[in-house]
Design goal:
heterodimer; A: alpha/beta; nine-stranded parallel beta sheet; 3 helices; 27% strand; B: eleven-stranded mixed beta sheet; 18% helix
Chain lengths: 253, 278
């Protein structure tokens, strides 16, 4: 463990072995930093935050700020961060506002310059948020999804596994797994090239190109043996239970 | 008063006994901080800047920096921030220019989210929200209760009307009318911000009157002056509709759909406070 003399580390914070805290960093009371993390310089980590191992925080990243909401942070909320994440410059991760809530980040995610994880968000693993990508409050991003820059999610949106959203669009509805979306009015454009398969291509065409009503289209796909198609069908059914195309809306209030 | 030992507060700064300056902050010599204002960490406040009471400024925000403007010649301009504002991580608020009236001013109870930018000579009234990475170019006026969503870029000299809602990723190059939802690449008026108006206690009658006005003004295809005259006749007795009509007429009097364009090259803002002038 090495702490630069100019850094301000609260005595009640726990800092793991081999963790480096660079110049002008602030680590607040109660922070739990696991082993092998690196705070390069001018990083702020404060509040009830638990961080695993091997994460890198670049200058001016801020973890543990209040929710960007007119209501205050929940007194018993906390942030949990896994292992091997990279937080680039200016990244912000905020505390939850729901009582007992958790803003949760998995492992091996990359957060590019000034990307933002809002209050009560849940992220899986291997997610990429590009420059200026923003996750609104209560959003969820599943494993391996990629959110391009200068855009981001409305509150309560879920981005499915392996999905891809193009840059400079507002994401106002759930993004189905393995698909890519674009456009100022949220359009599912096709199967993510990385997950391209005849089964998924067929599913895309049945759901978004056939003109069938959604329940009927999903019924037709039910018998498809492909597990990714099954996941897609389940996601779309879950999503339809919320309002405004956002399954997470059911959690509101 | 709590000033962290690592903060740099230059001689001449007036910091209220109940203000709080966190680690690694820089407070310039002509800055005033009111009671209860809190600079969390690594905040930079420069220039002739007055920050009122109970504001919370999050890490890496820079307040009172030089304008991003080629007309700026190093003049001694002012930044003024009222009470109860929240300014989030990395937000930048620039001071005024001589041409623009010397003052950048922010009212009370505004919420300015992470990485947003408020350029020189911009006036923000009260209760406004700027979401992440909202960019306000210079000389803009934002009226009370306006909400500007994420990644919105607002052109110079635009007026954003009261109680309006600007949707995400929009490009606002003309005045955004009050009480309306504006979204898209060409500042398109979508409809009445009825959710926002209901939340703020507007009467259903007024909201309906605004809806009727919206239909005539933006959906009927009538030429603008005719539509305005018709709305004035049918719903002009509603205060909100009257405000809307006056706003649109002012925009038409300006150039390129921006009322404040007519004030280009003449000072637009109120005079800076006397006691701040040497």
């Amino acid at each position: 463990m090495s702490v630069h003399p100019s850094a301000v580390v609260d005595p009640s914070a726990s800092v793991g072995d081999g963790t480096e805290i660079g110049p002008f960093c602030v680590v607040g009371p109660g922070v739990r930093l696991g082993p092998g993390n690196r705070l390069i310089a001018r990083v702020r980590i404060a509040g009830p935050v638990g961080i695993g191992t091997g994460n890198v925080f670049h200058p001016t990243a801020v973890v543990g700020g209040d929710p960007q909401d007119l209501q205050p942070a929940a007194p018993d909320g906390r942030i949990e961060i896994g292992d091997g994440n990279v937080f680039r410059e200016g990244t912000t991760v905020n505390l939850p506002k729901m009582p007992g809530g958790v803003t949760r980040i998995g492992s091996r995610n990359r957060f590019h310059y000034t990307s933002h994880v809002g209050h009560d968000c849940t992220l899986g693993n291997d997610v990429i948020l590009c420059t200026y990508a923003v996750l609104g409050g209560h959003s969820a991003v599943q494993d391996g999804a990629w959110v391009e820059g200068l855009g981001g999610t409305h509150q309560f949106v879920t981005v499915g596994r392996g999905a891809w959203t193009r840059s400079h669009i507002p994401i106002t509805e759930d993004v189905p797994p393995y698909m890519w979306v674009d456009g100022n009015h949220f359009e599912v454009k096709g199967v993510h090239p990385r997950h391209q398969s005849p089964a998924l291509q067929n599913a895309f065409e049945v759901v978004w190109k056939s003109g069938l009503p959604r329940p009927e289209a999903l019924k037709r796909l039910e018998r498809d043996p492909d597990p990714k198609v099954a996941e897609l069908v389940e996601f779309l059914r879950w999503s339809a239970r919320g309002r405004f195309g956002r399954g997470g809306e059911a959690r509101r209030g | 008063m709590a000033i962290h030992p690592s903060a740099v507060v230059e001689r001449g700064a007036e910091i209220d006994a109940a203000a709080d300056v966190g680690p690694f902050c820089l407070v310039g010599p002509r800055v005033r901080l009111g009671p209860g204002t809190r600079l969390i960490q690594s905040v930079t406040v420069l220039g002739r800047t007055t920050i009122g009471a109970r504001n919370i400024v999050h890490p890496f925000a820079v307040i009172g920096g030089d304008p991003q403007d080629l007309k700026f010649r190093g003049e001694d301009s002012v930044t003024r921030i009222g009470d109860d504002n929240v300014i989030r991580e990395g937000a930048t608020i620039n001071k005024g220019t001589f041409v623009g009236g010397n003052t950048t001013s922010i009212g009370n109870k505004n919420y300015i989210m992470a990485m947003s930018h408020i350029a020189h000579d911009t006036f923000i009234e009260d209760h406004c929200i700027l979401a992440n990475a909202a960019l306000l170019a210079g000389h803009i006026k934002v009226e009370s209760h306006a909400i500007i969503s994420g990644w919105v870029a607002v052109h110079h000299f635009v007026t954003v009307g009261q109680h309006s809602f600007i949707g995400g990723c929009s490009r606002i190059n003309q005045d955004a009318p009050p009480y309306m939802i504006v979204q898209g690449f060409d500042s398109e008026v979508y409809g009445v911000n009825s959710v926002g108006l209901r939340r703020r206690g507007f009467k259903p009658d007024s909201i309906n009157a605004l809806r009727e006005a919206h239909k005539v003004l933006w959906r009927s295809g009538l030429p603008k002056p005719e539509a305005l005259a018709q709305v004035e006749k049918s719903h002009g007795h509603f205060a909100e509709v009257k405000t809307l009509i006056e706003f649109l007429r002012a925009s038409d009097r300006g150039r390129m759909g921006r009322a404040r364009e007519s004030g280009r090259n003449t000072p637009l803002g109120p005079e800076p406070e006397e006691d701040l002038l040497e």
